[in-house]
């Protein structure tokens, strides 16, 4: 029997990432997978069958039909970015809470339209950045916030790349200008920017400068790019993202007394545990032939994978609104908007010939 207290989530769209999130919804203890909608009933039915939906889950042949279902509390939206503004606003207007894929929008103006609709209708919005919900992330935050161990942040380097095959580079929605025109910047760069802001305690930089040498496909979609971020207090950061390079997802944050590093940023090597290393005031030996103090490794175990933790935390927020009359939590859209601002700045810097672009919040 279904848990009547669980948050009932419907999925609009059968994107590949929805396979992972549909599983996460079923693993989350306070959520239930209640429906899926596609542009045809047959496609939605195939998706539900292939991904082990519960027998009571509803199948819809249109997005509108799912939105009209009064028994659905929240919607997971994995549609292409070009469709986000239209459908996210409709989800909010139907008073349904919104978990959506990143990038949230094509630019910050669209982002603000989506959030305004959510605010007007009292619904929670959260983007699908899974790594932020892993318990490892909370432990890393404790280290970064420890002034004795880490000191003051000076520099962050973040890299997320993977080599798309010829089919990906020709046919994936992330290389199509009418579907996801932000390309690698919106898909992989979102994570790099997010990790930098995480290390900087979400303090926005003053300026952003795109690195020279971005690669575009024939349709004008970014396949690789990078940028540097600069703060008035002297700290700096850089990120690189690409669909053309070996799979790499590293983050290094350097403080005045400590360093944090992890090499499986976006997706942990293992589903139920993840590690990071810290180094505090390291020393070299007397002959400078090696290190006397080596980095410490910290491994964090989780009962459910990070994507299920994300669904659990989202569902908890929805339940608090639904049952206790709470206001939507502004933490998550605030973080998302800051990332979106920097995406816009990188794009503008490229268009302006790699000039510095000021961040105006």
Automatic annotation (TrEMBL):
List residues of the GFO/IDH/MocA-like oxidoreductase domain. 148-260
Q: Which domain of life is it from?
A: Eukaryota
Domain Gfo/Idh/MocA-like oxidoreductase N-terminal spans what residues?
Answer: 7-126
Any single GO molecular-function term of the entry would be: nucleotide binding
Q: Which residues form the signal peptide?
A: none
**One Pfam family named in its UniProt record:** GFO_IDH_MocA_C3
Family note: Belongs to the Gfo/Idh/MocA family.
What is the recorded name of this protein? Gfo/Idh/MocA-like oxidoreductase N-terminal domain-containing protein
């Amino acid at each position: 029997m279904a848990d009547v207290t669980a948050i009932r989530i419907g999925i609009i769209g059968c994107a590949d990432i929805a396979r992972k999130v549909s599983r996460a919804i079923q693993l989350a203890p306070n959520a239930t997978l209640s429906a899926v909608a596609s542009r045809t009933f047959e496609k939605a039915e195939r998706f539900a069958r292939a991904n082990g939906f519960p027998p009571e889950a509803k199948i819809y042949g249109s997005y509108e039909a799912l939105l009209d279902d009064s028994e659905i509390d929240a919607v997971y939206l994995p549609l292409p970015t070009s469709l986000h503004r239209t459908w996210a606003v409709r989800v909010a207007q139907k008073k349904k809470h919104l978990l959506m894929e990143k990038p949230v929008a094509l630019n910050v103006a669209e982002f603000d339209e989506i959030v305004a609709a959510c605010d007007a209708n009292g619904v929670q919005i959260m983007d699908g950045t899974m790594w932020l919900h892993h318990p490892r992330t909370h432990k890393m935050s404790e280290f970064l916030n420890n002034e004795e161990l880490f000191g003051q942040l000076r520099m962050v380097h973040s890299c997320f790349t993977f080599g798309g095959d010829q089919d990906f580079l020709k046919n994936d929605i992330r290389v199509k200008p009418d579907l996801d025109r932000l390309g690698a910047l919106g898909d992989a760069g979102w994570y790099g920017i997010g990790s930098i802001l995480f290390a900087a305690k979400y303090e926005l930089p003053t300026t952003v400068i795109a690195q020279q040498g971005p690669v575009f496909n024939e349709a004008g979609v970014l396949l690789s790019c990078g940028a540097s971020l600069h703060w008035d207090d002297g700290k700096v950061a850089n990120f690189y993202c690409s669909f053309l390079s070996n799979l790499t997802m590293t983050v290094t944050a350097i403080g005045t007394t400590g360093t944090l590093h992890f090499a499986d940023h976006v997706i942990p090597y293992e589903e139920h545990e993840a590690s990071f290393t810290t180094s505090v005031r390291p020393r070299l030996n007397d002959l400078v032939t090696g290190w006397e103090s080596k980095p410490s490794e910290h491994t964090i175990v989780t009962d459910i994978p990070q994507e299920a933790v994300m669904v659990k935390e989202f569902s908890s927020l929805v339940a608090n609104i639904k049952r206790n009359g709470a206001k939507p939590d502004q933490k998550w859209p605030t973080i998302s908007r800051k990332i979106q601002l920097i995406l816009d700045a990188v794009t503008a810097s490229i268009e302006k010939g790699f000039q510095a672009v000021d961040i105006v919040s």
